[in-house]
Amino acid sequence: MALSAPIGIALAPRPAAADAVDDVIDRARLLQRLGIDRVWFGQRFDVDALVLAAVVGSAVPGLHVGTSVVPINPRHPLVVASQAQTAHAASHRRFTLGLGLGAPGLEEPAFGIRTERPIRRLREYLTVLRSVLTTGTVDFTGETVTAVPPMSAAVAGGDDPDIVVAAMGPQAVTAAGELADGIVPFLAGPRTLGDEIVPRLAAAARTADRPRPRVITGVAVVVTDRPDRARARAVEQMAFYDRIPSYRAVLAREGVATAAELAVIGTAAEVEAQLRRYVAAGATELLITQTDLGGPEDELATWRFLGALGGIPA
């Protein structure tokens, strides 16, 4: 049976790991043995997601790696282009660069930066990246970004990785459709995805004469016969998103009060049924997050199930 939506897993070092990078490599190898062929790394304030993607992509041949996501504000696009090409070459062209606008509540106190025109910055950032990643050079002076490298910025074997954006708001989705290869929405339920995000993204891509965009939908998933424990931890760990205006707007459109309500937690049959709703709404890939909500045994059970499933049929 043809599968229309591949499944990837979000990975992060375990808190008790003796070596963060070794830990992630070991778990990535396990996922590959279980039938999962793609993993994603989020950017926090500890391990560098782009470096980790390059290391894992090199250490685990055949595995697709990606970032979900690297905030654009603290890093110049020339720096990100260099890192992205390196990761693409290290993984033998199996890397996807996932970017995000970031969270002002975290970035302003941590970095002392403030972005007044985030959509303008996103558009200019993507313009610079697209030029460097496809041609190896750029000459751009915009309102928020200047990129005029004095020499080639090309990396042999690392050209033209896909760029995807953590976009859900109308302006960000439109920018991604016109200038990127897709989006990585998280906490956008099937209703919001199918009614608003996917149609807007597709229209923007058509207007820009770009190929059909990837829709890599992030969903928190736990396969378990003890759902209450996982749901309680989801409420605790996902409460952060309830306080961010952009996520609150999405939750309101989906008709739920908290982010935890969008976690897919239950038996294998229940999980598969819910994931099918995302694919029916337009998801082209699924990025499964927070599989540890139910503890180590449930996490392994979730990985085994998703690996055996292989993907979600349309």
From TrEMBL:
Residues 16-284 form the Luciferase-like domain. GO terms for molecular function: oxidoreductase activity. It is an enzyme of class 1 (oxidoreductase). Keywords: Oxidoreductase. The keyword Oxidoreductase applies. Its EC number is 1.-.-.-. InterPro entries: F420-G6PD/mer (IPR050564), Lucif-like_OxRdtase_MSMEG_4879 (IPR019910), Luciferase-like_dom (IPR011251), Luciferase-like_sf (IPR036661). Pfam families: Bac_luciferase. The keyword 4Fe-4S does not apply. This is TIGR03564 family F420-dependent LLM class oxidoreductase.
